[in-house]
Fold:
Amino acid sequence: MRIFAAPMFVFSLLALFGCASLQTEEKATSSLDGKPAFLSSKEGVKRETVSADVEKILKKLEKWVEETRNLKFKTPVEKQILSSEEMTKLRVEAWQNEGGWDQSRNNRKALVKLGLLGKGAELIPPNFTSTHLAGIYDYETKQLYLIRETIQAIQDHRPKFQMSREEAAGEIVIHELIHALQDQHFNLKAFMEARGGNNDRLLAAQTIVESEARLLQNEYRDWILYRRSFLYPIPGEATRTFLVHHNNPALIPVERSPSSRISRVRWVPTLFKYQSGLFLIHKLYRQGGWEKVNALYRDPPQSTEQILHPEKFLQERDGPTDVRLPEIPDLDAKWRPIWTDTTGELYLSILLREFLSVDEARLASEGWDGDQIRVYEKRDGSRTLSVGMTIWDSEKDAKEFLVAYLHLIEKKFPQRTLKEFMPEQRVSWETSEGMIYLEQRGDKVLLVEGADQEDLSTILETVWEKTGFIIEKP
Structure:
């Protein structure tokens, strides 16, 4: 089940900002299960093909992509024009096919339980707002969809430096053409589906795809502006200067969001996908050209940890441990599982940052080696329960995470009663939301939040005894 990352039926680009549209926004509604009105729309989507004039411009861009990326398009890229409203309807249809509102509702409950989303927040399904969207490449239909307003901008707009129409178009759609090229050579649908069911592994794969497209998009911008102004750096230099100056832009800040309406859990991963793979891809290109980059689609990073710390991918491989939580049959009478996934280093750092300082969150999440979390809901809908197992590179890393999580609990549950405390080993509390239990054994830390007292011993015994740990091969 995919939980954090948006459904990957499309790749999208914000025309005004040059990055992905935010996957999910928080929105207040009249009830927990209230649906935005547009989800009920049954009107069909009207589509039109691009004109010969626009097609000529796009063909020039395709040629630039081929020459720069050193790959040829195997077949012509099919293109269609939609309005913003029509694009929204297309997304609704795809979203409903992937689980729709029921899955979104369960995702929200899980995010609230973990502390990644406020209790009063609601979610709009991912990528539905098309206000700033310029184009989408859909690897299911092999179509490049352009927003009608974008086509009008191509025909009418003259950006700074007196850019021509084809140059203005390139600023808008080059990113999506690169996705089409990636798909024709590396089969993006299979590439993503092979990593489904594990959010952290999927996010790492998305980051490779989006960061490569962003890198080439930056190269195109540099190339255009260099031709227009001798004061602008030579093509590619702006990107290289950024990478050198920042050493590794994967270490993006997690302390703020662009708006109080957008949660950190949505904003940071969006930045991560479009920025954090730049260093890794650029490093591989410097080592062996595009062939090295092509190899990423055969052997990509297996975790966000390997992107946050490129040396764990480029040098001595530190593959993640695949954690498999067991079923707990004794819970079936009262609880039902609604959500299971791997959070990974990036999302653990975001979770810790919701309650702790940036430095403490980053230090505690480093050394991550694997995890799996499952969220249950009481069959009467009254409460939720989370059970999580984490494994770390060392006992020291596990201890740092345990201490940080103790501090998180202090802030997350200010009203709590201490039930058991064994320093540097295990601790439990009673709260209005159920029992909380943390325990470290060697390089592993178990987290339980929301359990009934009578179920706690069964949970602990089953999880410690039956959880599987599968070491990923380098």
Remarks:
- The chain has two domains: 11-314, 321-471.
- The longest strand covers residues 368-378.
- The two ends are 25 Å apart (CA to CA).
